[in-house]
Amino acid sequence: MGELSKLSIAAARDGLNKGNFSAIELTKDCLLESTKSNQLNAFCIITDELAERQATIADQNIAKKINGNLTGIPLGIKDIFCTKGVKTQAASKILTGFTPPYESTITQKLWNSGAVMIGKLNMDEFAMGSSNETSVYGSCINPWKAQNNQKNLTPGGSSGGSGAAVAANLCLAATGTDTGGSIRQPAAFTGIVGLKPTYGRCSRWGIIAFASSLDQAGPMTKTVRDSAILLGEMSGFDSKDSTSVQKEVPNFESYLDKNIKGKKIGIPREYRVDGMPEEIEALWIEGAEKLKSAGAQIVDISLPHTQYALPTYYVIAPAEASSNLARYDGVRFGERASTDNGEGIDEMYKKTRQNGFGAEVKRRIMIGTYALSAGFYDAYYIRAQKVRKLIQNDFVEVFQKGVDVILTPTTPSAAFQLKDGKKKNPLDMYLNDVFTVTANLAGLPAISVPTGKDKVGLPLGLQLIGKPWGEGDLLRIADVLEKESLFERNINKWW
Question: What is the rounded distance in angstroms from the CA atom of residue 426 to the CA atom of residue 366?
């Protein structure tokens, strides 16, 4: 057992259609592996009974030849996606006991395509964090270990559970959400592929909101091909989401296995930040050379407002979080603090939020409330929105000059140790997003591809940023980068 769970979506799809194994066999194999996830704390809930029911139906549909692209494919679902009848908590104490009576649009699309849910995956509380240490369920652990060092490493955040589960073959793929890099950063740390689509490509309805103008769901998979398959099933217009865009969903898989001769790859000089490790710089240069040898043209570009991206993000995101999280007051759902006799509703609100939110969430609510307050709204929030527009314009100008995609590092380092001191300094933690936040601010698609390892054997990723609605070309170039890199997912047994 355990061999079937190592399959990619594409390989499992072919095996199921050929009758090499059944959906129930594949699902049980993943469920067996997921029981070992206590070692990683990747799952917060394992839905074994539901998974077996879905797999049984999948086998029936395969026999009738009415199967979809994901029929019988076991997936993990980040705890931020509402799942009907299954507890959804966004890894926060304040949502203790919340069981949605409805299904998020994206998960419903996955079930309509025949996918199987193995369980809900750990994450940073309300998706706020870069190390998956802010979860009410406790820290998630990266299945990778440094050579000659067995200390636990972060899987990244906020989609750390998704990254860890896919890397450790607990499920074939997973959903994630990306507000400032929360799909791409954990993908780089765990040696998998993580794709953030264009803002509006995937519905946000039924996803617990962090920052509404930045949040976007996407796939976290073992291969670029799997990302193309999963993105196709997650995408599409949704009338229930006012930010969903009515765009045709192409066959993303059809863009793969094609040459990239003549494609222009932009290398932004502003991403060469002070203190960048030599191995990240070397990986970046090597990635550019691999694309060049595959026929692409490498061009130097400038994104002059990149230096303002991180402070801009950390004004806008907390401001929107402050507004979105105001609804958690203990009245309608979730945790409610008890009050003493004579205390009014205001005291109940105060105690509920004080006890229900973790330290990082409180910090961001306070920053956001401050930025939106009278006297500071124009100085911080409005100014940040103006800088955001300048960042967007930088990308528009570059793409108008003929650049097809932009190549950058995904993260400034490999996975770091849990509780190594970074958690104590929020500013150090926020710097993990230095290469990823621009894509969210500009609403652009971006993908992280594992392309190498550091000196102690930990995975490193490179990021490709594409044009709006250009996921097809982005996947095409990422597919070539993946094949040229020959990355080996040879994780030692971690249990």
Answer: 14
Spatial distance between the Cα atoms of 492 and 328, rounded to a whole number of angstroms: 42
What pLDDT was estimated at residue 493? 56
End-to-end CA distance of the chain: 15
Place of tokens 């999963």: 230
- The token pair at 267 is 């290398």
Which CATH homologous superfamily contains domain 1-495? Answer: Amidase signature (AS) domain (3.90.1300.10)
Rounded Cα distance between 368 and 326, Å, is 11
Contact 207, 324 (CB under 8 A): no
How many CB atoms lie under 10 A from the CB of residue 246? 9
How many other C-beta atoms lie within 10 A of the C-beta of residue 350? 15
What tokens does 331 get? 């009245």
182 is catalytic: yes
Residue 266: Cβ-neighbour burial (10 angstroms; 0-12, 13-18, 19+): buried
CB atoms within 10 A of CB 58: 26
- Asked whether the beta carbons of 47 and 99 are under 8 A apart, the reply is no
| Amino acid at the residue 167 | A
Confidence of residue 494 (pLDDT cuts 50, 70, 90): low
What are residue 128's phi and psi, to 5 degrees? -105, 100
Task: Note every long-range contact of 381-386, with CB atoms under 8 Å and residues 24 or more positions apart, other chains counting.
Answer: 381/315, 381/316, 381/319, 383/315, 384/311, 384/312, 384/315, 384/316, 384/319, 385/316
The pLDDT tens digits for 391-410 are 999 999 999 999 999 999 99
Q: Which of 158, 162, 322, 448 is catalytic?
A: 158
242 a catalytic residue: no
Radius of gyration of the chain from Cα atoms? 21
Q: Which of 182, 203, 322, 485 is catalytic?
A: 182
Collapse the DSSP code of 56 into the 3-class scheme (helix H, G, I; strand E, B; otherwise coil) and give the result. Answer: helix
Catalytic, 162? Answer no
Considering the candidates 22, 28, 37, 78, report the single residue annotated as catalytic. 78
Does residue 421 register a pLDDT over 50? Answer: no
Tokens describing residue 304 = 């002059």
| Of residues 278, 87, 82, the one with CA closest to residue 175 | 82
The secondary element (H helix, E strand) that includes residue 119 is strand 116-121
> Would you state the structure tokens that stand for residue 199, as one six-digit string?
């803002």
Beta carbons of 172 and 118 less than 8 angstroms apart: no
Q: 1: pLDDT confidence band, cut at 50, 70 and 90?
A: low
Alpha helices for 375-470 (secondary structure H): 383-400, 426-430, 437-442
Q: Would you list the domain boundaries of the chain?
A: 1-495
